Amino acid sequence: MPSRSKTPTASSAFDQALERYRQRVEEQLDAWLPPAHIHPARLHEAMRYSVLGGGKRIRPILVYAAGEALGVAAEHLDAPACAVELIHAYSLVHDDLPAMDDDDLRRGKPTCHKYYDEATAILVGDALQTLAFHVLAHAPCDDIEPAARLRMIGTLSMAAGSRGMVGGQAIDLAATGQQLDIAQLEDMHIHKTGALIRASVLMGALAAPELDMAHFEALDHYAKCIGLAFQIQDDILDVIGDSNETGKTTGADAERSKPTYPALLGMEQAAARAAELVDEALASLDGFDQRADLLRDIARYIVSRRS
Questions:
Q1: Model pTM score
Q2: What confidence score (pLDDT) does residue 35 get?
Q3: How far is CA 226 from CA 10, 72, 171, 208, in A?
Q4: Which of 115, 157, 188, 196 suits 164 as a labelling partner, its CA being 20 to 30 A distant?
């Protein structure tokens, strides 16, 4: 049987869907972020610099795609889409700091601490994190039950904290220069990258008024698989990617002696592992109709992307 992940991903409908949702979340983020001239202006300017005008927006698009698969209108998904992207943006600002990954380039432009300063970057991350939960708590959306809104807040807070993304970053820092086995490496990335991708899909599902548990569990499994596949592709791009396409410095992981899938498995096996995960993700969507096609295309895109 041929690999499902080898199905071509490029299509005008797919590209249009990605662009439509990118524009939508960009507009929503612009509305939620404080205007740059509002006091304290430098902080607000730096927040907008770090969030707007760049990025693939994969996580908010996953929110929209998961909701779309369950028949949820886009306007009911704006708040969780914004919230997850604000958390992601905060994590990038903090990860780029000298005490963490010490990166100079992000999304093709100077990182926040390089363009402003380290103290401002720390405050930007703090402010974006709290704004994410403000959006989830206060966004007007009568069609989302209060209990579902609380579950979204709980889902995102768990994914962003010590048992998710932040915990993964701590494991990553401790593992620098160490030799990990495949189970340890996957555990690190399930936390660091996978947790927030999983939360994106689950928050989209939680917006559905009558959520079938079988569908929820299938989406959860899909999200776990693509979260890990996403990180493997990131590791591959750090070796073979073009900085002009990726928007960040290529080869940084090897320079810092970070454990990666290509370093542990080799490029060919790393790519094969990512393809296996995409196949597994696609199989988990077998019980969904054509409304889940965007989720299917995203899974394939994750391992074919060049940035």
A1: 0.91
A2: 97
A3: 18, 22, 20, 21
A4: 115
Whether the predicted pLDDT of 139 surpasses 50: yes
Question: By the 8 A CB rule, do 70 and 215 touch?
Answer: yes
- The more confident residue out of 30 and 173 is 30
Interatomic CA distance for residues 138 and 153, integer angstroms:
11
Helix/strand/coil (H/E/C) assignment for every residue in the chain: CCCHHHCCCCCHHHHHHHHHHHHHHHHHHHHHCCCCCCCCHHHHHHHHHHHCCCCCCHHHHHHHHHHHHCCCCHHHCHHHHHHHHHHHHHHHHHHCCCCCCCCCEECCEECHHHHCCHHHHHHHHHHHHHHHHHHHHHCCCCCCCHHHHHHHHHHHHHHHCCCCHHHHHHHHHHHCCCCCCHHHHHHHHHHHHHHHHHHHHHHHHHCCCCCCHHHHHHHHHHHHHHHHHHHHHHHHHHHHCCHHHHCCCCCHHHHCCCCCHHHHHCHHHHHHHHHHHHHHHHHCCCCCCHHHHHHHHHHHHHHHCCC
pLDDT in tens, 59-72: 999 999 999 999 99
Range 7-296 classified under CATH 1.10.600.10: yes
Q: What percent of the chain has pLDDT over 70?
A: 91
* Average pLDDT rounded to a whole number, residues 219-248: 84
Report helix angle 267-283 to 293-304, nearest 10.
180
Q: Where are the domains of the chain?
A: 7-296
